[in-house]
Every structure is written in structure tokens, then in C-alpha cells.
Amino acid sequence: MKLYENPFSSAALKVRAVIHELGLPVTLVTVDMAKGEHKSPEFLAKNPNGKVPTLVEDDGFCVWESNAIMCYLAAKKPESGLLPADARGMALVQQWLQWQASTFAASTGEVMMETLYAKFFGRAKDEAKYAAGMEKVRRDLAVLEKTLAGKEFLCGKLTLADFSIVSALVLRTPMGVDLEAFPNVKAWVARMESRESVRKSLPPL
Ligand SMILES: N[C@@H](CCC(=O)N[C@@H](CS)C(=O)NCC(=O)O)C(=O)O
How far apart are the CA of 116 and the centre of ligand 1, in A? Predict the structure, then answer.
């Protein structure tokens, strides 16, 4: 099994962390995005979106979208509990995975665009867009703060939801995201970042 990914992709980070957490034999293949490898015909045959991460099984089965890849991997080890099988447990994990994809990826993405990516593309930060993005990030952090009151993990026990959502916060310092006003989130991020699986997945900054 191979994961086509990039060390700086937050979508790939969460999948790498779950691979380490589950101890699965997956070969990591770095896609050189600066060279446009993700838009090559070979790569587009695996994922027509031309995006990382993309998982490819030895028999050619492909799956893309980081949250779907994580579910596929966790289903291989149901005893891990990362993707509960009972209806309510499964629904709550899906709730957070979909919130991540529809809401938190968008707000944190706006802030990343005006900080890390603006720098990467050699353009100035658009302060108005940055402020608008930060307002949405703070709105989302307030949701996480409330949820994490009295809880170690988003769904009570460690699940895919935690890996999916924390991945957007590992670059919070260069993004200028301050967690001081969100003590439950701050403690949860520290808890997640103390896991070997997450530490081994951090970008080489
Ligand atoms: N929703 C997708 C997002 C994947 C994504 O946007 N990946 C970025 C890297 S973080 C990418 O490959 N961008 C290249 C492009 O959009 O051309 C997921 O969670 O897998």
C-alpha cells in the first residue's frame, strides 16, 4: 500500500498520523508539487483531482480525500476504536470529519493562504482577508472549546475526529493562531501533539 503525499500538506499529515497510530505497513511517496507531479497523467489516473493525499493499494484500488482514507485505514483495524462501529459512535466521528472538511478546513485555509502560502508564492499578506479568516477560525475554535469541556478527546475517547481536526492547528504559530483564549483546545492540542504518531508526522519546519 502506498500513500502519495507531501510533508507540508495538512491533509496528508492526519493520514500519516493515523498510519503511525495503527502501525500499518504503508510506503510514503512524496509528490513533488513544486514540479507539478500531482498534475501529471500518471498521478491524475490515481486521483483525477490532482491532489494529495491519495492512497493506492497493491492491487490498484485508489482512495482519495484524507478523511475517507483515514476511515479506510481504521476499518482495517476495528479493534483500535478510531472509527467506532456502533451507530452513535460512528455518527459522531462522521459529524466531526464532515465539519472538518466543510467548515474548519475552509476557515483555517483562508488564514494559511494569507500567511504560509502568501509567503511561498512571494506575495504580500492581504490583511483584510487574513482578519476575515481569523474571525472564522475563532468562531470554530469556540465550537471546539465548548465540546472539549471536561473531555480529553472530541468524542470522549481518541478517534479519527481528533487526528482530522488537530492537523489544521499544527502550523498555528506561523498562521498567527493563538490558543490562549481557548484553554480546553490548547490542552487537547498538547495532548495530541504529545502522541508519537502525531510527532512523527509533523512537517520538517
Ligand atoms: N479535501 C482534500 C484536500 C486535499 C488538498 O487540497 N490537498 C492539497 C495539499 S494540502 C493539494 O494537493 N493541492 C494541490 C492542488 O489543489 O492543486 C483532502 O482532505 O484530502
Answer: 15
Q: Is the CB of 51 under 6 A from ligand 1?
A: yes
Give the pLDDT confidence of 59-104 residue by residue, as tens digits.
Answer: 999 999 999 999 999 999 999 999 999 999 999 999 999 999 999 9
Ligand 1 atom at shortest distance from the alpha carbon of 65 = 20
Confirm or reject: Cβ of 115 under 6 Å from ligand 1. Answer: no
Query: What's the CATH code of the domain at 120?
Result: 1.20.1050.10
Residue 184's pLDDT is what? 98
The tally of domains found in the chain comes to: 2
Residues 185 and 93 in one domain: yes
The residue range of the domain holding 69 is: 2-80
Spatial distance between the Cα atoms of 20 and 33, rounded to a whole number of angstroms: 23
Distance of CA 151 from the midpoint of ligand 1 (Å) = 30
The response to whether residue 38 sits with its C-beta less than 6 Å from ligand 1 reads yes
